[in-house]
Amino acid sequence: MSQMHKVAVITGASRGIGAELVSAYRKLDYAVVAAARSAAEFDDPQVLAVPVDVAAPGAGRQLIDAALDRFGRVDTLINNAGIFIAKPFTDYTDEDYEAVTGVNLRGFFEVSRSALAAMLSRDGGGHIVNVSTSLVDHAYSQIPAALASLTKGGLNAVTKELAIEYASRGIRVNTVALGTISTPMHDPSTHDMLAALHPLGRIGEIADVVDAVMYLENAPFVTGEILHVDGGQSAGH
């Protein structure tokens, strides 16, 4: 393919937000590398499916090497893969800790490190978007989520650090911090209860998240931003 085509790497791309982001980036005429543990092949030759567990050592290099081998470059990385387990803090198990930190932190580290190296290997900069949660800023007594706060809070912090570290190289780093979004992980029977968590009185839609990511993609003067897509949840309740 032409080296002028931009390339987006999206983790957690097999369903929900990730799958819709694949479509959104294709509409921007990006080639897309769609990563997931159960990644299925696409009919579109400009979408490469890579089955990978981002928490595994070496997964980042494997994924980014696949992107470079197929498309020759990486312009955008969307760290969408994530795990959320809601439990009282003392009920968390070692297995819970390993699962959540493995995907949310090591997965970010694995893929972002290799993607940044690819971006730095050529002129033109790049863009990283992380997916976080508004629970980091606005804890809710009915949703005990210490591991989410521990890991996603780390992503919020490193977003600002990397944005400053690489600003002079033209690489932007941003985060979308989400409220509750209508994805396959939420049973529809819980939607009314979840809607009440947001001052706007509704659950978020996947399109709300995609629109926010597209804004960041097309906002070259925005970096180090934690963009809340949460119906006002982080502002108060």
The CATH architecture:
3-Layer(aba) Sandwich
Number of strands: 7
Number of domains: 1
Per DSSP, the total helix count is 6
Structural class: alpha/beta
What does the radius of gyration come to?
Answer: 17 Å
CATH class wording:
Alpha Beta
Report the end-to-end length measured between terminal Cα atoms. Answer: 50 Å
CATH topology: Rossmann fold
Helix content: 25-40%
Average pLDDT, all residues: 93
Task: Report the sheet with the most strands, covering strand number, pairing sense and barrel closure.
Answer: 7 strands, parallel
| C-alpha geometry | globular
CATH superfamily: NAD(P)-binding Rossmann-like Domain
The ordered string of helix (H) and strand (E) elements is EHEEHEHEHEHHE
Point out poorly predicted stretches. Answer: none
Strand content: 15-25%
Order of adjacent strands in the largest pleated sheet: 3-2-1-4-5-6-7
Walkthrough of the structure:
It comes from Mycolicibacter sinensis (strain JDM601) (Mycobacterium sinense). One of its GO terms (biological process) is fatty acid elongation. One of its GO terms (molecular function) is oxidoreductase activity, acting on the CH-OH group of donors, NAD or NADP as acceptor. The chain has one domain: NAD(P)-binding Rossmann-like Domain (Rossmann fold), CATH 3.40.50.720. It has helices at residues 16-27, 59-71, 94-120, 146-165, 191-195, 206-217; strands at 7-11, 31-36, 47-51, 76-79, 126-133, 171-178, 226-229. The radius of gyration is 17 Å and the shape is globular. The chain is α/β, with parallel strands linked by helices.
